[in-house]
UniProtKB/TrEMBL annotation:
CDD domains xrefs: HATPase (cd00075)
Transmembrane segments annotated in the record for this chain: 24-46, 157-176
Keywords: Kinase, Membrane, Phosphoprotein, Transferase, Transmembrane, Transmembrane helix
Main subcellular location of this protein, as a coarse class: membrane
EC class name: transferase
One Pfam family, short name: HATPase_c
Listed name of the protein: histidine kinase
Histidine kinase domain span: 239-433
Gene Ontology molecular function: kinase activity
PROSITE patterns registered for this protein in UniProt: HIS_KIN (PS50109)
Reactions listed under catalytic activity: ATP + protein L-histidine = ADP + protein N-phospho-L-histidine
Location in the cell: Membrane
InterPro entries, alphabetized: HATPase_C_sf (IPR036890), HATPase_dom (IPR003594), His_kinase_dom (IPR005467), Sig_transdc_His_kin-like_C (IPR004358), TCS_sensor_his_kinase (IPR050428)
């Protein structure tokens, strides 16, 4: 299937490539020029042949007419012998004398006297008439089969050149264009591999300072401007998050203490809003830092420790599966990723809906399945739901993007789909057995780590 799609894409790219369009235009121009020149040459050639034929015919007719005219001056002399397609017609339009090849009898009517092009005995003949002194009218013809054959040969040659020349020019133009635009194709491949989230390294410039060199130089200047703009945006975003983080932490702690002391529901809801804002600032900080700048702190923790954190952060979640094992992860980052998924699920399901988190632990991988009873994911968004600031539920659109980024940094992945009437997200991590050799020095002191329950909001 993948190979079929790749071939289809290659065919489409072949039809829309610049070198194909240049070769096609080059071939069409060559066809037009070749056809025009060929028509002019063939027309001139055929015209010259036609004039030569008429000259021969008229010369023959003049010679015969002169013989009959000079002979008629002497009374009683017989007319000279005639050959080829020649007929002597009297005043009554009857054959007086004809060449042997025509098989005409004297006195036979000759209705073709005023015809100058006619088929005669299976041959196309062109004729002229001359006065033959006192003998009558002389009809002289020449077969033009050779002239017609030459005309047809010239037209076939013109048609053949009109068919072969464009094909040859197309192949030649494709080959020349491929060589001439090779640098442009390589530049396109290099530019296509640029990932703004990872690196904005400039493209290598060709030695020859041609249009490709100018294009790559312009792209490099654009990359430098983009990198400078991204640096300014990250710096500004980081400053904003830093300024918001400390007041929100104090505000959340104060509202939680006030809610515990007074039991006021409004204060409790305000504390939840402060908690939501704290996580939003975390997502913004993650976005500002980017994947390359985020450092992972690996620990092997009991799964129940993670369950306790999530239960406090997203109340009303149903936890299913086997939570008796351990998980190799960055606890704070994984808590942040799963909390974002559960918060989105709770927002989509509503107060009366259900949200569940199922843990499926195998030696090869650890799967966290978040299922809600909401309306599901918008089908028109597809995988774009994981892009920053893309949301189908009216949220900031950062949670899913950050969650997938955290999953990728753990060596796993995050996918989403619609299942059983709601949305389902599956976050996969490699099994702990796969990382024993790599992280052996960090898998210690599990008892102390099991007691750690610091929420993700406490870490920027």
């Amino acid at each position: 299937m993948t190979r079929h799609v790749a071939l289809s894409t290659a065919r489409v790219a072949w039809r829309h490539s610049l070198r194909f369009r240049l070769a096609l235009v080059y071939s069409l121009v060559a066809l037009a020029i070749t056809t025009l020149i060929g028509l002019v040459v063939v027309t001139l050639l055929l015209g010259s042949m036609d004039r030569q034929f008429d000259a021969r015919l008229n010369e023959r007719a003049d010679v015969l007419a002169d013989q009959f005219t000079n002979l008629s001056k002497g009374l009683g002399e017989r007319p000279p012998a005639i050959t080829g397609f020649t007929v002597l017609v009297d005043a009554q339009n009857r054959v007086a004398l004809s060449s042997n090849g025509l098989n005409m009898e004297p006195g036979e009517p000759f209705p073709q006297l005023n015809e100058y092009r006619l088929p005669l005995q299976g041959t196309r003949v062109r004729a002229v008439t001359r006065k033959a002194g006192g003998f009558g009218t002389l009809w002289v013809g020449l077969p033009e089969d050779d002239l017609i054959a030459a005309r047809e040969s010239a037209m076939r040659a013109l048609l053949l050149s009109a068919l072969i020349t464009p094909a040859l020019m197309l192949l030649l133009g494709w080959w020349v264009g491929r060589r001439a635009l090779a640098g442009l194709g390589q530049a396109a491949d290099l530019a296509d591999r640029i990932d703004p989230t990872r690196s904005l390294a400039t493209l290598p410039l060709p030695v020859r300072e041609d249009e490709v060199h100018r294009l790559l130089a312009a792209i490099n200047r654009l990359l430098v401007r983009i990198e400078a703009g991204q640096a300014r945006e990250k710096q500004l975003l980081g400053q904003i998050v830093h300024e918001l983080g400390a007041p929100l932490t104090v505000l959340k702690a104060s509202l939680n203490r006030a809610a515990e002391r007074t039991g006021d529901l409004e204060v409790g809801r305000a504390a939840l809003v402060a908690d939501e804002l704290t996580f939003t600032t975390q997502d913004l900080m993650q976005l500002a830092r980017g994947q390359l700048e985020m450092k992972m702190v690996w620990h092997y923790i009991p799964a129940r420790t993670l369950l306790g954190r999530l239960d406090r952060l997203v109340p009303g979640t149903s936890f299913e599966g086997d939570w008796s094992g351990g998980i190799l992860c960055d606890p704070d980052r994984l808590t942040q990723a799963l909390r974002n998924l559960l918060a989105n699920a709770r927002r989509a399901a509503g107060p009366e809906g259900t949200v569940s988190l199922t843990l499926e632990d195998t030696p090869e991988q650890v799967r966290f399945v978040v299922q809600d009873s909401g309306p599901g994911l918008p089908p028109e968004l597809g995988d774009r739901i994981f892009e920053p600031f893309i949301s189908g539920a009216g949220s900031s659109g950062l949670g899913l993007s950050v969650s997938r980024q955290i999953a990728l940094m753990h060596g796993g992945n995050l996918t989403g789909s619609n299942q059983a009437g709601g949305a389902q997200f599956v976050l996969c991590l490699p099994g702990a057995a796969l990382g024993d050799d790599h992280d052996e020095d960090q898998h210690h002191d599990d008892t102390e780590l099991a007691e750690v329950s610091t929420p993700a909001a406490a870490r920027p």
